[in-house]
Amino acid sequence: MIIETGNKGIPLKEIIEKLGNKSYSYIEFRCKWQNGEELDDVFFGACSYDNKTGILTPLDGDSYSLNDLYIDWEEELINDGQFYLTVWEKGEPSY
């Protein structure tokens, strides 16, 4: 089964703007899709974001874009005062 993603949602840059255009020391990228009666949720990457430069820096060697589309997000403030963001792509199973 192949999971196709990225054709639904809003751009990461708009999510960051909605949340106040903060820097994020960690952005976690995930994909979720309906698998029968279960909802699968899979981690696929991470980066950081500097709001002063507008640059995403991969933490895993992959590349990410502020134009990539996501359907859901969650922001956390960690004890060390840093902001973490988790975003989810919508996956569509393709057989």
- Number of self-contained structural domains: 1
Radius of gyration: 14 Å
With helices defined by DSSP (H or I, 4 residues minimum), what is the helix count? 1
Helix content: under 10%
Structural class, from helix and strand content? mainly beta
In what range is the share of β-strand residues?
over 45%
What distance lies between the first and last C-alpha atoms, to the nearest angstrom?
5 Å
Order of helices and strands: EEHEEEEEEE
Shape call = globular
What's the main sheet like? 5 strands, mixed
Number of distinct beta strands: 9
What's this model, at a glance?
With 95 residues, the chain is mostly beta strands. It has one domain (2-94).
For the structure shown, list the relevant keywords.
single chain, 95 residues, mainly beta, five-stranded mixed β-sheet, 1 helix, 9 strands, globular
